[in-house]
Amino acid sequence: MDKNIKIAIIGAGPAGLSAGMYLEQKGYENYTILERNDHVGGKCHSPHYNGRRYEMGAIMGVPSYYAVHDVEEFCGITHDGPKLNRNYKDKHGKVIEPFNPKANILRAPHLLKMKNQMKKFAELLETKYKGYDVNGHRGVAQGRYDGYAVTPGREKVSGENPNLKDLALPFKEFCKLNGVDLVQEIWIGPFTSFGYGYFDEIPAAYVLKYLDFQTTMNFVNINLWTWKEGTQFIWESLNAKLKNHARLNSDITKVERKDGKVYITVNGTVEEYDKLIVTAPLQYFPDYADAREDEKDFFSKIDYERYDVLAVETKPEDHPEISYYVFDNMTPERVGHLMVYYRRWRDEVNQVITTYALRKHKDKPEIPYEQCKETVLCDLQDMGNPASAVVNEKSWYYFPHVFSKDYADGWYDKVEAMQGKYDTYYAGEVMSFGDMDETAEYSRELVDRFF
Ligand SMILES: Cc1cc2nc3c(=O)[nH]c(=O)nc-3n(C[C@H](O)[C@H](O)[C@H](O)COP(=O)(O)OP(=O)(O)OC[C@H]3O[C@@H](n4cnc5c(N)ncnc54)[C@H](O)[C@@H]3O)c2cc1C
User: 119 and 215 in one domain?
Assistant: First the structure.
């Protein structure tokens, strides 16, 4: 492709900014990143409180975040944040140790069984499900894998593996099929409480591409990265380093693609481009673009999670001494309850605590925002850490995905086949997974494949 083409990128979250970085590194310097907000970072959002930054969005990474590491290297920054630590409570606020056989001798046989299933699962993923962990979903529904391995060298791997079709099943069914039901107890913490939905509704492909075995072990061993200035700082640093900084407050009212050009109306002015990369939610693309029938059809199948975050103050005596997972509240029956709360700084009680809840399950009516908020505040009281004030709150459009039927019907292969068709490329969360690294990695691959 001609290196001088004009490329528009919609969205200055991890996907859009890293697309800019990878394009620039490949010699494409004529790109423009259009961002609706007055700041960059998207769901990596780190406001200030008492002289420090806290997290309303993304919090952590793991050592296998190779694309985020590319960004760190490009910007000369590192993951220098506070060490994460956590404990567990039941729904009544009692501290529990679910994984310690010594704490509850009656659970010891169960834990032993779980350990054996973990071993079996690790082997299955390496053998029966070879290729399960490459970035993106190309070919999976057809029993193929095609992408880059999750290794520092990110070698290109591809091959046939009909077993991969099983990944379209909800994770719960997938575990049952493989006789490893108990591993869900390990995966649920960094999956459901992190807002990615319930195991009876979400295809195993999403669960395992994000929580591949290596990543899951990093969570188990709390081998995690954070950033002192927040995850938003990663993307602010990248934006500052890019030759073309994102254009903030860009209100896009129209996208028209005709005669091999892309015309975008931004803040009332029509701009002409050769190619478009959309990293903003594809579900809403038809609201402002001349979406074709196939785009409308596929994008209408996308669903998303309603993931609510509160930042609360507590009285010093009510401040939790550590972050807590509330395991009982991670089941579909307890949708709308507090699943995790996060204390970021160890040396400070004058900080906000952030709380996390989901309020939608595919088969249940959506819980209204205010009701969920009330429930979470009551739960926090039950935990023994009542809030004295809510200082920030946000309901996120979170983890866009498709369900098992569409996944198995080849949604991804059909959308991948549309890449470039209307001088438009699709990136961002739904194309891979809703975390910083999968989205950045997908942008890397997109640039590699098409530019
Ligand atoms: C509470 C929470 C916790 C999380 N925890 C983690 C974590 O610990 N680790 C992790 O890796 N990830 C985490 N994530 C997920 C991670 O933040 C996202 O997956 C990642 O930010 C997605 O990047 P993206 O660029 O695809 O989308 P986004 O970050 O959503 O960015 C999209 C950008 O597009 C802009 N935009 C949207 N529509 C338009 C439009 N019409 N015109 C112009 N611009 C538009 C938006 O304003 C936004 O800036 C968390 C997210 C949340 C909310």
Answer: yes
* Identity of the amino acid at 72: E
Domain count, the chain: 2
Q: Are 13 and 41 in contact (CB under 8 A)?
A: yes
Q: What is the gyration radius of the CA atoms in the chain, in angstroms?
A: 22
Identify the domain containing residue 272 by its residue range: 7-82+227-302+403-450
* Mean pLDDT (whole number) for 286-295: 98
Distance (Å) from CA 204 to ligand 1 centroid = 22
Share of the chain above pLDDT 70, in %: 100
Whether residues 278 and 410 fall in one domain: yes
Nearest CA to ligand 1 atom 4: 58
**What's the 371 CA to ligand 1 centre distance in angstroms?**
25
3-state secondary structure of 159: strand
**Which mutation among 219, 247, 435, 444 tests ligand 1's pocket best, with the greatest number of atoms within 8 A of CB?**
435
In this structure, which residue's CA is closest to atom 15 in ligand 1?
435
Average pLDDT of the segment spanning 186-213: 97
Written as six digits, the tokens of 194 are: 């992190």
Mutate to test the pocket of ligand 1, among 302, 305, 436, 438 (most ligand atoms within 8 A of CB): 436
For ligand 1, atom 42, the nearest C-alpha belongs to 36
The confidence score (pLDDT) of residue 74 equals 98
Q: Does the pLDDT at position 149 exceed 90?
A: no
pLDDT band at 356 (very low <50, low <70, confident <90, very high): very high
* Cα distance between residue 358 and residue 437, in whole Å: 22
**pLDDT in the model for residue 225:** 97
Query: Considering 362, 377, 400, which residue would you say is the last residue of a domain?
Result: 400
Taking the centre of ligand 1 as the mean of its atom positions, its distance from the CA of residue 72, in whole angstroms, is 18
User: Residue 151 above 90 pLDDT?
Assistant: no
For residue 152, pLDDT beyond 90: no
In the structure, which protein residues have their CB atom closer than 6 angstroms to any atom of ligand 1?
10-16, 34-37, 42-44, 57-61, 194, 250, 252, 279-280, 307, 309, 396, 398, 428-429, 434-437, 439
DSSP assignments along 376-436, one per residue: HHHHHHHTT---SEEEEEEEEEEEEE--HHHHHTTHHHHHHHTTTTTSEEE-SGGGS-SSH
